[in-house]
Amino acid sequence: MVLPLAITPGEPAGIGPDLCLQLAASDSGVTDDLVIIADPDLMAQRARQLGLNIKLKEYSTGSSSSGCLSILPITLPAACEVGILNAENSAYVLETLDRAIKGCMANDFAGLVTGPVQKSIINAAGIPFTGHTEYLADLCGKDKVVMMLATEGLRVALATTHLPLTAVPGAIDADLLTKILSILHTDLQEKFGIADPVIVVAGLNPHAGEDGHLGTEEQTIIEPVLESCRSKGMNLLGPLPADTLFTPKNLDNTDAVLAMYHDQGLPVLKYKGFGNSVNITLGLPIIRTSVDHGTALDLAGSGKADTGSLRHAIASAREMASHWNSHASR
């Protein structure tokens, strides 16, 4: 039996529920192997608001969902108004993630695709939350995972994620980079089916430090780590200056780029493929992809949300699961 993918729509007041419903309305077949973990009443109410005639069905293991949208029910604790955040529903958002991870770890689901969450309202509810990536790592018992965004022709992984820029240099050390590169290399092999992945690594400083005149991290940390990892069989290029790294000369035969911090690599990725890119968490014992955008509260309930990134996230999760299953069966 082909296992379904679990979908968590994310913030209930945002466009996550809309995207799931619009996807089902536009092409019922694309949702046949999906299980939406959400409040059924929320989904039914949003469908009516969007004017969509979607048949919702409570999910049961092994049942067919052809022609309808399968829902694994989690109840909202408070009323949800489109576009209006409510801190009382923050625990619900995390409960859907908890249930999805439990199902993935139990091999009930082939993988997890997450919709956008609103970090601010979760924190306003008194729940410390820095993002999906960190939360899922904790749930899966992993001390280190890698955030990677991908679009057609480009994958960008991050050495550091949601840190203030002033904290980045202190966070980058040999141990961190070694773990990041190991996870990236392994998952490119096992979850993407790339036998000998080529990874281009960015420097931290302008001009990759300019031989130490603009910073020494390249000489003291990055270059020694790359040499050590190369000796273990990794195909690594760099460290290269970030301002010239993202050019055809460097990317044509590259499988992934490792950027040192969030806004070093992701502006390029999102310029190239915003709306058609996917956020992927590497290093987890499960498949996890996500949309590349936020909750778009102003679009919720309007029918104008673009399903492109969700489609890409679902397709990527399916492909990764296929490679991973093939690798595991060897």
What does this protein structure show overall?
With 330 residues, the chain is an alpha/beta fold.
Rounded mean pLDDT score: 93
Order of helices and strands: EHEHEEHEHHEEHHEHEHHEHEEH
Low-confidence stretches: none
Q: State the secondary-structure class.
A: alpha/beta
Question: Quick one: how many beta strands?
Answer: 12
Secondary structure elements and pairings:
Blueprint: E1 5-8, H1 16-26, E2 34-38, H2 40-50, E3 56-58, E4 69-73, H3 90-105, E5 111-114, H4 119-124, H5 132-139, E6 146-151, E7 154-158, H6 168-171, H7 174-190, E8 198-202, H8 217-230, E9 235-240, H9 242-245, H10 248-251, E10 256-259, H11 262-273, E11 278-282, E12 288-290, H12 308-328
Parallel strand pairs: 1-2, 1-5, 2-4, 3-4, 5-12, 7-10, 8-9, 8-10
Antiparallel strand pairs: 6-7, 6-11, 11-12
Overview in brief:
By secondary structure, the chain is α/β, with parallel strands linked by helices.
Keywords:
12 helices, 330 residues
